[in-house]
């Protein structure tokens, strides 16, 4: 018996081009940042996943409100910016945990300059080894905004649901202390290269 290919109804995907451009640029789609586009994806999720799969792309949709193109070879070339952003997020989660805050509520936090100063004081040697100062940390958060991991908020930045990818990874590493060395280098911001051929 021959398996029949799934029928794709492109007419039911009016924002196909917009979504493909976003995902192919290595960005995340977040429900809270782009609710209309998210609703479009959610309504026809199976259609989008089938179409992108037929084109060789793996669209992953997390029920917590974010989606992205996943590439299995993403860890082969983790660049400096990716590693530094992962380090920054790890330090933010560590700091907030010490403050008694629930890490799963990261979307409620405002990351301001005072926080960056506190991180510099707390982890000065580690950040200095990466060549990072307060201004560099602010630049990393601005870069995160470009890839829909954060957004500018009043007084600073707010993390978006796609950061669950990092938190999930950090928590899995925390459960395996022997694998935690250089944990920040194991988390990939995106799996696509930017216009200059460098991973964001």
TrEMBL record:
Residues 177-200 are annotated as: Disordered. It comes from the Bacteria. It holds the Pfam family MksE. This is Bacterial condensin subunit MukE. It comes from Pseudomonas pohangensis.
């Amino acid at each position: 018996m021959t398996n029949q290919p799934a029928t794709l109804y492109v007419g039911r995907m009016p924002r196909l081009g917009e979504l493909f451009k976003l995902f192919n640029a290595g960005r995340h789609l977040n429900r809270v940042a782009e609710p209309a586009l998210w609703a479009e994806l959610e309504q026809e999720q199976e259609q989008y996943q089938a179409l992108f799969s037929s084109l060789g792309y793996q669209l992953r949709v997390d029920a917590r409100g974010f989606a992205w193109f996943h590439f299995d070879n993403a860890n082969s070339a983790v660049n400096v910016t990716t590693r530094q952003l992962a380090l920054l997020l790890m330090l933010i989660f560590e700091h907030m945990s010490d403050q008694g805050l629930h890490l799963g509520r990261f979307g409620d936090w405002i990351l301001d300059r005072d926080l960056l100063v506190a991180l510099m004081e707390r982890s000065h040697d580690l950040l200095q080894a990466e060549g990072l100062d307060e201004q560099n940390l602010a630049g990393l958060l601005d870069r995160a905004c470009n890839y829909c991991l954060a957004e500018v908020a009043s007084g600073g930045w707010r993390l978006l649901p796609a950061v669950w990818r990092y938190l999930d990874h950090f928590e899995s590493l925390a459960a395996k202390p022997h694998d935690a060395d250089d944990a920040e280098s194991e988390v990939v911001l995106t799996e696509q290269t930017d216009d200059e051929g460098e991973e964001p």
